[in-house]
Amino acid sequence: MTRTRLYLVRHGQVEGHEEKRYNGQADVPLTQEGLAQFGLLQLRMKKKNLTAVYSSDLSRCVQGAQMLASGRDLEIQTVPALRELHIGDWEGKTWEELQASYPDEWQARLADIVNYRVPNGESLVDLAARIRPALKEIVERHPGEDILLVAHGGVNRVILLDAIGAPLSCLFGIEQSYGCLNAIDYFPDGKSVVQLLNG
To answer: Which end of the chain has a smaller Cβ tally under 10 Å, C or N?
Structure first.
């Protein structure tokens, strides 16, 4: 059966990573370590016969996608729908700051991680609603091919949960380290198999 293989990458380490912070859709730069992580991925992906490279349009993903597409005759296709969760008024703030400034909202989000919407931001339901049609379109465009997508921790987790049929409430049951590689096979009958997780 023809399958489409998606190599799904999380962007490399970003500035401010040492503090627990919600970057959301803020365009934070990669660190030298983050660039080095993409360098290692370049070596791992060298012999893969990729036919397309997709990326979130935030620079921490695009920069890595450019590195991974280097030496291939492929144009990076940026997809704004694959940006990280928009965390609204909390964007750029550390967990410590949020717990001090928004104690009730912080607890409300912990109590309902799936449906709670940060003021002026998105819930996980909102995030999944914009990711799913974008990913479906990408996969359907490349039957039988191997393709690459560089995205974010939250985005990748939603894609992986959908691939194994798990609910959004399991989001933090999957790790996505900076610069990690995942591989998912999609089949015409709608089935999917995760071949590699957080590699």
So the answer is: N
Dist. CA 55–CA 148, nearest whole Å: 8
Q: Which of 11, 86, 122, 152 is catalytic?
A: 11
Total-model pTM: 0.96
Torsion of CA 135, 136, 141, 145, to 10 degrees: 70
84 is catalytic: yes
Tokens of 88: 């609204």
> Is 11 among the catalytic positions?
yes
Per-position pLDDT tens, the chain of length 199: 699 999 999 999 999 999 888 999 999 999 999 999 999 999 999 999 999 999 999 999 999 999 999 999 999 999 999 999 999 999 999 999 999 999 999 999 999 999 999 999 999 999 999 999 999 999 999 999 999 999 999 999 999 999 999 999 999 999 999 999 999 999 999 999 999 999 9
| Active-site choice (84, 86, 91, 152) | 84
Q: Is 14 left (phi over 0), alpha (psi -120 to 50) or beta?
A: beta
